[in-house]
Amino acid sequence: MVVGGEPDDPQRFREAGFGNLQEDDDIAANVTAFRERLEDLQLAVRLSDGEHRCAALPEDLP
Amino acid sequence: MQPPFKLKRPKVKPVHLATGVFVARQGGFFQLKRLNRVAMHQLKVMTTGQHKGRVHPDDPYTSEKLFQELRDAGVLSDRVSREQMEIVRRAVHQFIANDQAAFHGYWPHRPFGNDYTTSDTRLVTMDAGHAPTDGGLGVLLVSALSATPEGNKVLIGIDSILAANSALGDLASPFFEEEELTLRTVPFPDAQELATLMAPQTAALSNLTARLADNFTLETQARLLVLGLCLWVLTCILRWSERACATPFPRLLLADFSQRPRRPVRRASWISVVQARRQLTDYKVLCERADPPESPGNWADLFDFLGKRAGLIQPRSDTSRARKYIEPMPDTIRVLLMSCFRSEEHLLPFGELRVGCGKLGLWL
C-alpha cells in the first residue's frame, strides 16, 4: 500500500500509470490527510519541535 | 508458473480464514453437534423429502426432544424445567449466532458448516462433509508461516490465543459431548518458496503478533491478527502473480485518504485496484495456457471480496456501482501500523513510517 510519503513516490506513480497526480495538490495533500487520520486515531502526534511521531499504540505517544 | 494453491472458492470472509487457520493449526476440528442443537432453538421446517414444508417428527432440535436428550445425558438437573432450558438456549444462541451466521447444521437438516466467531479452540468447527469455507487458505498460511522462524512466532501467538478459554466457550461447555477431533490435514508441498517470497510480510505479521500480546483483550487480539492474516493473503496473491507474469514494476495500491471523490487521487486509487485485479486475471490466464494447464482459482474475486472485508477496499457494498478504491479503515490502519514497529521501537518519525511501497514496504 502506498500513501505518497516517500520522495520517489511521484516517479513510482508515473511508472505505475496513475496519471496526472500533482505533487503538491494531490500527493502531499494525501499524505497530510493520512497523518491527520493517524492523529485522529491517536497513533501520531506533533511534538513541540514540529516533528510528527507515530506510535503503534496510543499509550506509547508522549 | 504453478500456483502455490488452488483457491476452491473466492468468497472467503475473515471469519472463514480464521477457521481455516485454526483448523490447519490444530489439525482438525470438533463437530459440536449437541451445541448446535442447543443454540439453534428456532423450529426449522424441512425443505426437501417426505416431510417437506413441516418440522421433521423426529427432529432433535425441537424443545421436547432436546430436553429429553439433555436430561438423559445428565446435563440438566431435575430442577430445570423445559421453559428454563429454552431461556438458556436463547441466551446461548445470542452469543453463538451473534453475527446471524449460525445454522441448523446436522440431521435431519442439510449439512451446513458453522464458523462460530470465536477463537476458542473448543469452539473451532466446520462442516466435515463440505469443502472448507476458507478455500484452502488456512493450510497455505500455516504451511508458509511454519517454514520460517518469524512465521513460527506468529503461529505461537495463534496457539496462545486458541488455548485461552473464552467466556463464550465456558458458557457453551456444558453442551459439549465427548468427541474426538475430526482430523483434517492437507499437505502443502511448496511452502518454502512461498515463505521466501513472503518473508517481509511474515516479519510484519510477527511484529503485529508481538505488539498485540498483553496489550489487548483476547478477542481483539484475534480480530486484529486475522485482519493481518487477510492482508498477508492479499499481498501473497499479488506478489506471486507478479513474479510469475514477470511484471516489471510491483503493483501499487494507492490509498486515498482525501475523502474527496472527485480528486485525482481517488481516480488513481481506483486505477490501482483495477490494475491489481487485472494482474490476478492475467496470472489466471497464464496458468490456463500453460502445459499442462493449471487452474489457480479466481484470485481476482478473492482480492475484491476479502479486500473489502479486511477494511482495505471501499466502498464495501457488493452491490455498489461505485468504483472501488483503497482506503484502510481504522482497525486496518492500526494493524498496518503495529506491523511496522519492531519490539524495541515505540515512536517513529512520520517520515520513517513504513506502511507502503518500497521503504514503506513491509506489507506490499
Overview of this protein structure:
- The complex is a heterodimer of chains A (62) and B (364).
- By secondary structure, chain A is α+β, with helices and mostly antiparallel strands.
- Chain A has helices at 9-16, 23-40, and strands at 44-46, 52-55.
- Chain A has one domain (9-60).
- Chain A is built from two helices and two strands.
- Chain A is elongated, with a radius of gyration of 14 Å.
- Chain B folds into two domains: 14-29 and 122-167 and 185-360, no CATH class; 33-113, no CATH class.
- Chain B has helices at residues 14-26, 33-39, 63-72, 82-96, 137-145, 149-163, 167-172, 191-197, 199-212, 218-245, 264-288, 299-309, 330-340, and strands at residues 28-29, 182-183, 313-314, 325-326, 347-349.
- In chain B, the strands form two sheets. In chain B, strands 1-2 form a two-stranded antiparallel ribbon. In chain B, strands 3-4 form a two-stranded antiparallel ribbon.
- The chains are: A alpha+beta (62), B mainly alpha (364).
- The interface between A and B is large, with 41 and 47 residues.
- Strand 2 (52-55) of chain A pairs antiparallel with strand 5 (347-349) of chain B.
Structure, briefly:
Chain A is elongated, with a radius of gyration of 14 Å. Chain A has a two-stranded antiparallel ribbon with strand order 1-2.
Supply the number of helical segments of chain A: 2
User: Helices and strands of chain B: which structural class?
Assistant: mainly alpha
- Low-confidence blocks of residues of chain A: none
- Determine the most extensive contact between two protein chains: A-B, 41 and 47 residues
Please give the share of residues in helix of chain B.
40-55%
What attributes does this structure have?
heterodimer; A: alpha+beta; elongated; B: 364 residues; mainly alpha; 2 domains; two-stranded antiparallel ribbon; two-stranded antiparallel sheet; 13 helices; globular; disordered C terminus
